[in-house]
Amino acid sequence: MENGDHRTAPAFQLQQASPPEAAPVRNIILVAAIAAGVQFGWALQLSLLTPYVQLLGIPHTWTAFIWLCGPVSGMLVQPIVGYYSDNCTLRFGRRKPFIAGGAGLVVVAVFLIGFAADIGYAAGDTLGKGTKPRATAVFVVGFWILDVANNMLQGPCRALLADLSGGNARKMSNANALYSFFMAVGNVSGYAAGSYTHLFKIFPFSKTKACDVYCANLKSCFFISVALLLCVSALALTIVRETPPPETAEAPEATKKKKIPVFGELFSALKNLPRPMWFLLLVACLNWIAWFPFLLFDTDWMGKEVYGGTVAEGKMYDRGVRAGALGLMLNPVVLGFSSLGIQAIARGVGGPKRLWGGVNFLLAVCLALTVVITKQAEHSRLYTVGADGVQILLPPVPGVKISALALSGVLGIPLAVTFSIPFALASIYSSNYGAGQGLSLGVLNLAIVIPQMVVSVASGPLDALFGGGNIPAFVMGAVAAAVSGIFAVTMLPALPADASTKNLSVGSFH
């Protein structure tokens, strides 16, 4: 659609409206801080739940399918929540009811996940090794609820940040960078909690007959996660006042359009997406195909390939998982510092698309290096002989461990960009074309949940095909990252770093 052509009314058509005044920076900070509470729990999922699921007796090959909960719920929940938050007329606010509801669901989910082993044992599961079907069922239900809750929180939070930015592109970018920074804070806290093995002593009741030390630590971590999320959410919900949407003169067709069911609205938005948004979705989709293998299986990789351990046999696998959690804690430290400099770095390298493309190449190199580190770990494996003459596996040599931890730290740089630039661009495009922030971010979420579904379905069989390790999925991610980097540089339109959304017309993209 060319500028000035208003013969049709696509979902992303530019509307003539005066943007609302931007909210004070402190309000944006309070809303962005909710990301710390959400990401604390997400960090626990990434670092502890894959090993925990295997302790429940579920094979590694099937663990990937458990992670389908997230993308499936995200595909359904985010567009629905985004649509209804755009059109919510409650006095409490448009976004706030969904943020409050999401926080409440997190409490329910954490109870089910943390007490899954106890509930399963009370319902008839046996102790020791072997599959625990009842505990697994409780865990899966809790996991689904947790992912639904996270999607209820994140979409409205990012939409509220865009609302509070008053339609200014630079402020939207800064707000998303702040959101990325608080995600880093939550990640650091979550991974630190996950790597500490005596946290259960703070909550002595967490260790039970059916829930060993590892399980009790997981349970204790989630207790802290809930407390943090409820605190930051309560502050934002009570202090921040939502900015009302701009008043627009709507045609009768636009009024009717609001009555279209949410998925009709979503499909309409997809059908009428401008080319820049399609390019954004393509780059984001490939980007997340690269990220999910590492995010989902890093601690398992550390336990199996780097430390050479086996699930539920000896201590080496658990030591590797804790080392992996430490590496994931270093990742958001780098992510946090990188988030604060994204705007300056983007200007220095020639714009957001070049920065995003460059860090995707860095991501590809880092994922490829997991193969090198794994081979080094295998070739330098050390053993000792115990008093009973049994060979005992020793931890990896310092060079291998340092390399693996450094890799996790360096990956914080591209992750900071992934958590910021795509969402800022989506907010800018949606404001430019007059679409609702919630629905537009729901559309972008499709480029995240579909890759997660691909990785969840493909990684288990792919790894099993090549011997049961995590390396094949990492190699797949490296290839996707390289292609994503090429497309980001060659296909994404240039975007003036200092432009406000009202100056970014359809014809501005070249």
TrEMBL record:
<feature type="transmembrane region" description="Helical">
    <location>
        <begin position="97"/>
        <end position="123"/>
    </location>
</feature>
<dbReference type="Pfam" id="PF13347">
    <property type="entry name" value="MFS_2"/>
</dbReference>
<keyword id="KW-1133">Transmembrane helix</keyword>
<feature type="transmembrane region" description="Helical">
    <location>
        <begin position="277"/>
        <end position="297"/>
    </location>
</feature>
<feature type="transmembrane region" description="Helical">
    <location>
        <begin position="471"/>
        <end position="495"/>
    </location>
</feature>
<keyword id="KW-0472">Membrane</keyword>
<protein>
    <submittedName>
        <fullName>Sucrose transporter 1</fullName>
    </submittedName>
</protein>
<dbReference type="InterPro" id="IPR005989">
    <property type="entry name" value="Suc_symporter_pln"/>
</dbReference>
<feature type="transmembrane region" description="Helical">
    <location>
        <begin position="64"/>
        <end position="85"/>
    </location>
</feature>
<feature type="transmembrane region" description="Helical">
    <location>
        <begin position="222"/>
        <end position="240"/>
    </location>
</feature>
<dbReference type="GO" id="GO:0005773">
    <property type="term" value="C:vacuole"/>
</dbReference>
<feature type="transmembrane region" description="Helical">
    <location>
        <begin position="323"/>
        <end position="342"/>
    </location>
</feature>
<keyword id="KW-0762">Sugar transport</keyword>
<dbReference type="InterPro" id="IPR036259">
    <property type="entry name" value="MFS_trans_sf"/>
</dbReference>
<dbReference type="GO" id="GO:0005985">
    <property type="term" value="P:sucrose metabolic process"/>
</dbReference>
<feature type="transmembrane region" description="Helical">
    <location>
        <begin position="25"/>
        <end position="44"/>
    </location>
</feature>
<dbReference type="GO" id="GO:0005886">
    <property type="term" value="C:plasma membrane"/>
</dbReference>
<dbReference type="GO" id="GO:0008506">
    <property type="term" value="F:sucrose:proton symporter activity"/>
</dbReference>
<feature type="transmembrane region" description="Helical">
    <location>
        <begin position="402"/>
        <end position="426"/>
    </location>
</feature>
<comment type="similarity">
    <text>Belongs to the major facilitator superfamily. Phosphate:H(+) symporter (TC 2.A.1.9) family.</text>
</comment>
<comment type="pathway">
    <text>Glycan biosynthesis; sucrose metabolism.</text>
</comment>
<feature type="transmembrane region" description="Helical">
    <location>
        <begin position="438"/>
        <end position="459"/>
    </location>
</feature>
<feature type="transmembrane region" description="Helical">
    <location>
        <begin position="135"/>
        <end position="153"/>
    </location>
</feature>
<keyword id="KW-0813">Transport</keyword>
<keyword id="KW-0812">Transmembrane</keyword>
<comment type="similarity">
    <text>Belongs to the glycoside-pentoside-hexuronide (GPH) cation symporter transporter (TC 2.A.2.4) family.</text>
</comment>
<keyword id="KW-0769">Symport</keyword>
<feature type="transmembrane region" description="Helical">
    <location>
        <begin position="354"/>
        <end position="373"/>
    </location>
</feature>
<feature type="transmembrane region" description="Helical">
    <location>
        <begin position="174"/>
        <end position="194"/>
    </location>
</feature>
